[in-house]
Every structure is written in C-alpha cells, then in structure tokens.
Amino acid sequence: MARNEIRLKIKLRSTGGTGYTYITRKNRRNDPDRMVLRKYDPILRKHVDFREDR
C-alpha cells in the first residue's frame, strides 16, 4: 500500500474559536475516530483542545 493510503494528513483546529490550526498525520487503522489533542494556541496564549477537521 502507498504511504498516503494509511497515514492521512489531518488538520487540528482550535476549539478556542481563534481558527488556529496544526497539521499532522494519523494512522487510519489505529485511530479511526476523530482525534482530539490538547495543544498550545498562540493567539489565546494557553493550552486548549484541538479537534480533527478533515
């Protein structure tokens, strides 16, 4: 299988309402659900949840 079929590029969008995004990859087989990570939002200057936004 090709590399891009299993590991998708996803956008993680801030739940703080700033519109700030991180771009990362995830394994579709191991994590079929939407990903939620707690990361730093430089606009709010604090850590908030970032949800997957394809």
Automatic annotation (TrEMBL):
Keywords, ordered alphabetically: Ribonucleoprotein, Ribosomal protein
Database matches in Pfam families: Ribosomal_L33
InterPro entries membership: Ribosomal_bL33, Ribosomal_bL33_CS, Ribosomal_bL33_sf, Ribosomal_zn-bd
One annotated Gene Ontology cellular component of this protein: ribosome
NCBIfam families assigned to the protein according to its UniProt record, in alphabetical order: PRK00595.1 (NF001860), rpmG_bact (TIGR01023)
Membership in a protein family: Belongs to the bacterial ribosomal protein bL33 family.
The protein's name in its UniProt record: Large ribosomal subunit protein bL33
Lineage: Bacteria, Bacillati, Actinomycetota, Actinomycetes, Mycobacteriales
